[in-house]
């Protein structure tokens, strides 16, 4: 029996990771040749790294912002946008990714729990603004003019965003689906176990079983651009 979700909460929660953008040419983090094999995450994805060398951190995110701008959404992003067009608020799309490929594929409601490359904020006054393509350590904050602007990205050791809304959805949803994530970074890596504890169906879609594959009741393995459209089609068909 499929669990019934209360009317005002999404019946379907989807979490995406870097694997959904891999076929768009954006690197993942932990695959062969992934970003964390080329950069030390301590240097470019922690508050300490930013304090030590803000210029290096801006260079890292400027390169990622440029890559994302040059990339195009793939069939997986498009299938998820079409699913949202059919389900509306019955579905919640959470992403660990900081690129904007979901939005450029047409998704309207994307919960970026690790922040977004196209957003920036001031470490002095917390003013938030659209990030320029290139950011530099001595850029003045558009609001307080302090040379303290940073990418609006959640670094290791910082609190992910929207956790209250995500846990509320996980406790009520009928199904949780993780797409293209290695299941190595918490709290996202714990979402499947959380949803399952509340009786939800859980499906992992990935190139191969992730570290948390045992938390899922089902697994569909292969490239996201093939497996995701096939799954969204079957999901919509069973709703008919
Ligand atoms: N289709 C589907 N899955 C793929 C594809 C593909 N074409 N290519 C790679 N994958 C899978 C890999 O098998 C791997 O399990 O995507 C996953 C990517 O894992 P990671 O590189 O660890 O990325 P992610 O899980 O999103 O990392 C989580 O870690 O560094 C932090 O904040 C960063 O949001 C990131 C978080």
Describe the model.
The protein is of the alpha/beta class. The chain has 2 domains: 1-26 and 71-114 and 160-240, Rossmann fold, CATH 3.40.50.1220; 27-67 and 117-153, SIR2/SIRT2 'Small Domain'. Helix content is 36%, strand content 18%. It has helices at residues 19-22, 35-38, 41-44, 47-52, 54-70, 75-87, 101-105, 163-172, 191-197, 224-239; strands spanning 12-16, 91-95, 110-112, 115-122, 128-130, 149-153, 175-179, 201-206, 218-221. The strands form 2 sheets. A 6-stranded parallel β-sheet has the order 3-2-1-7-8-9, sandwiched between helices. The protein has a 3-stranded antiparallel β-sheet with strand order 5-4-6. Strand 7 (175-179), helix 9 (191-197) and strand 8 form a beta-alpha-beta unit. Helix 6 packs parallel to helix 10 (224-239). The chain is globular, with a radius of gyration of 18 Å. It starts with 11 loop residues before the first strand and ends with a helix. Adenosine-5-diphosphoribose is lined by residues 17-19, 22-23, 28-31, 34, 96, 114, 180-182, 184-185, 206-208, 210, 223-224.
């Amino acid at each position: 029996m499929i669990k019934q979700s209360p009317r005002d909460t999404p019946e379907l929660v989807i979490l995406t990771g870097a694997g959904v953008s891999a076929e768009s040419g954006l690197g993942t983090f932990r695959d062969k040749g992934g970003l964390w094999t080329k950069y030390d995450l301590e240097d470019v994805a922690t508050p300490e790294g930013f304090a030590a060398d803000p210029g290096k951190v801006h260079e890292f995110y400027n390169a990622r912002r440029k890559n994302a701008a040059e990339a195009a959404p793939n069939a997986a992003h498009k299938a998820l946008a079409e699913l949202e067009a059919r389900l509306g608020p019955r579905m919640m799309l959470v992403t660990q990714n900081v690129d904007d490929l979901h939005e450029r594929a047409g998704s309207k409601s994307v919960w970026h729990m690790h922040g977004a490359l196209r957003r920036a904020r001031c470490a002095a006054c917390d003013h938030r603004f659209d990030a320029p393509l290139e950011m530099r350590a001595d850029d003045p904050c558009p609001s307080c003019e302090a040379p303290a602007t940073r990418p609006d990205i959640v670094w290791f050791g910082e609190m992910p965003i929207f956790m209250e809304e995500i846990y509320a959805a996980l406790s009520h949803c009928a199904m949780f689906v993780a797409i293209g994530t290695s299941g190595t970074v918490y709290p996202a890596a714990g979402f499947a176990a959380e949803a399952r504890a509340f009786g939800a169906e859980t499906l992992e879609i990935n190139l191969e079983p992730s570290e948390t594959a045992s938390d899922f009741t089902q697994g569909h393995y292969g490239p996201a651009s093939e497996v995701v459209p096939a799954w969204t089609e079957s999901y919509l068909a069973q709703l008919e």
